[in-house]
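From the pipeline queue, job 12 of 40. The input is one protein chain; the requested action is below.

Action: predict structure.
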Amino acid sequence: MRGKILVLVIMAMVLPLAGVSCGGGGGGGGGLSFEDLAGTWFGVMVDFNFDAHTYQLTMDSSGHMTDFYMDEISLPAVSGTAFKESGRTFSFLMNNGIEGGFITDESGTHLAFLNEIFLRGVMEKGATELPPFSTTDYIGTWNGYSVWLDADLEVINEGSTVINIDSVYHVMGTGLVGALAGSIEAFLDPAHGVAWGTDDADSVYFELALSVDRTFMATIACLVSLDIEITDCEFGAYTEE
């Protein structure tokens, strides 16, 4: 598949994802510090094969990330370092050279992340296990902020966005590239709180992943094509009204 990708990573209200390319020094004043984020984070990671996994890491007060687990299996060779970019926006560099970024909510309790090989997910500080998710957890109006990224994960556009999901799972959204109208079609992985759907024209695939406390969603929506490229990506962060 080849073409543009529309990606909306949904979580609580955030500041713009600015300068997400990694390895830069922790710029941006105000907002949250690494002391606010220090702790154990747990949630769901979706890989490039669209398989969902539980995911856990520990972040210290300097932004160092260690003690990674995937599906409860320790990953002792994996580590990384996060860098402050703006108020609640951070980049990270893993010890294998993979770069990415994440955005937190205002309280520093949730974050959504994406890296350059399309591992993406949602995490919650202090959570320890996934709950029993329900289809009704997705229903509501979600307000947030989106950014459009280039191949280097640099922001090329940003703005406010809205997603509405009704009781029959119709999805209506406004993004940086216009309106999205579609439906949730199935639960890709109910045990991990991941669902998927398409727009009414069957041209956009979107994916929704819930946080442990169900107050925040991470999604990815891709224009159906022959390849998934990191270019032309819209990411966002939302909280339910």
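Job complete. The radius of gyration is 16 Å.
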